[in-house]
Amino acid sequence: MKATQKAKGPVEAPTNLPSQNSNTQINGMMNMHSNNMESCPAATERSFRSLMMELESPIRDAKNAVSLLHLQLDQHFTRDHSALTKNSDYWYLSKDDVDDLVFTANLISGLVRKTISQWEKAVEAKQ
């Protein structure tokens, strides 16, 4: 798709009205020169919503990692390993199998910690 208008250069907007100096407060423009989130509820709400939306990826990643761990556990512990162990009560896991299980468990742990941390940030932004 081709743009119908070409940019004519940078656009600059005045930071105050022509008849006002920058120290004069204009009605309805209380936060014009400040970045104070406490005095601007809309900014706090936007931040809360943004932080809540950022929770989706780590939650979905954790869900997928839990599915992977479930698959690994199912593959290793529902099979009969008696051909290798000579006892049906024992299981056999190779070093790679153990590494995979530990990696997946640590991945889940990290994702859960990340999700909890982001949740706490969102709650703080809401308060």
Topology, element by element:
Elements (H helix, E strand, L loop, with lengths): L40 H13 L2 H22 L4 H4 L9 H32 L1
What does this structure look like?
The structure is a single chain. Helix content is 56%, strand content 0%. The chain has 127 residues and is an all-alpha fold. It has a domain at 41-126. Helix 1 (41-53) runs antiparallel to helix 4 (95-126) and helix 2 (56-77) packs antiparallel against helix 4 (95-126). The protein contains 4 helices and no strands. It has helices at residues 41-53, 56-77, 82-85, 95-126.
Summarize the structure.
With 127 residues, the protein is mainly alpha-helical. The protein has a domain at 41-126.
Radius of gyration: 28 Å
Fraction in beta strands: under 5%
Structural class: mainly alpha
The mean pLDDT is 76
How many helical elements?
A: 4
Helix/strand order: HHHH
So what's the oligomer here? Answer: single chain
Helix content: 55-70%
Total strand segments: 0
Q: State the shape.
A: rod-shaped
Ranges where pLDDT stays below 50 over 5 or more residues in a row are: 1-7, 11-22, 29-35
Let me know the largest β-sheet. Answer: none
Instruction: Give the terminus-to-terminus CA distance.
Output: 44 Å
